[in-house]
Amino acid sequence: MEEQKSTVRAVERALEVLLCFTDEKELGLSEIAARVSLHKSTVHRLLATLESKGFVIRDVQTDKYRLGFRLWELSASLAHSDDPAIILLPEMERLRDVVGETISLYVRDGNERIRIQAVQSNQPIRRVAPVGARMPLSVGASSKVLVAYADPEVLQAVLQDPHWPESIDKEAYIEQLEQIRQQGYATSVEERELGAAAVAAPIFNRNGKLVAAIAASGPSNRLTPEMMSEYAVPIMEAARRMGKMVK
C-alpha cells in the first residue's frame, strides 16, 4: 500500500512539473523546483524520466526545458470528428468576421472554465486569448453563462468555493444568472481584467444539453454596453447553429 501511494505521488509530481509550462515555453531546473515546491534533486529525477519518455526536451545550450513532441502526439488524439474545438472553428471564424472581436469557446471543468478554442480579432488593438487558459466561474460573461444554464448543484458548488472573491455579492450574482436566463446571453465589463469586456451565449446540443459558451471579447472602450447588446444577436444565432453541430 505504501509503495502504491509513493507511485501515485510520483505521478502527481510529474504532472505538476508538466503544468509549469502552461504559462512559460522554457524553464530552468531551479525555476521548476520553485514552482512545484520540491528539492532540485527530486525535480531533476522527474525531468530525467519525462525527458526519456519524450514529454520534455532539455536545451543543452541554455540548460532549460521545454515540452516535448510526445505531448503533441497525445494532443493529436483530441482532434476527432466530434471535438467541438475542431468542429466549431469555422463558425467561430465566421462570427469573428461579423463582430470584429476575438471569439473564444469555453467549457466548464469543476469550478473553472477552460478556453478550448479561440479566434483572434484582426483589429490592431485586441484581446489575445490563449487556448488552455483556466478562469474562475465567479466572474466573466462566459463563466456566468456556464453557471446560469448548468444544474443547480453546479451553482451551489461555485457559491461554496473557498476561493470565491469577497468583493462579489452572492445575491447579486444569483440575480445576474436569472437575468441571463431571461435574455439568453451575458455581459461583463472589467470583471476579471482591467480594460476588457465580453458578451457570451450558451451552446446547447441537439438534446438540449449545455455543452459550451461562446464569447466575443475586446477592449471595454470598444465593446460598450450598446455594442454588446447589438452583438448579442449574432452571437446567439451562431450559438444556435453551433448547437446543431455538436453531440
Question: Can you offer a commentary on this structure?
Answer:
The chain has 247 residues and is of the alpha+beta class. The protein folds into 2 domains: 2-73, Orthogonal Bundle (Arc Repressor Mutant, subunit A); 84-243, Beta-Lactamase (2-Layer Sandwich), CATH 3.30.450. It is built from 10 helices and 9 strands. The protein has helices spanning 2-19, 29-36, 40-52, 69-76, 84-87, 89-99, 141-148, 152-159, 170-183, 225-243, and strands at residues 27-28, 56-59, 64-67, 102-109, 112-119, 134-136, 186-189, 196-204, 210-219. The strands form 2 sheets. Strands 6-5-4-9-8-7 form a 6-stranded antiparallel β-sheet, with helices on both faces. It has a 3-stranded antiparallel β-sheet with strand order 1-3-2. Helix 2 (29-36) crosses helix 3 (40-52) and helix 6 (89-99) runs antiparallel to helix 10. The radius of gyration is 20 Å and the shape is globular. It starts with a helix and ends with a helix. The relative contact order is 0.11. The mean pLDDT is 91.
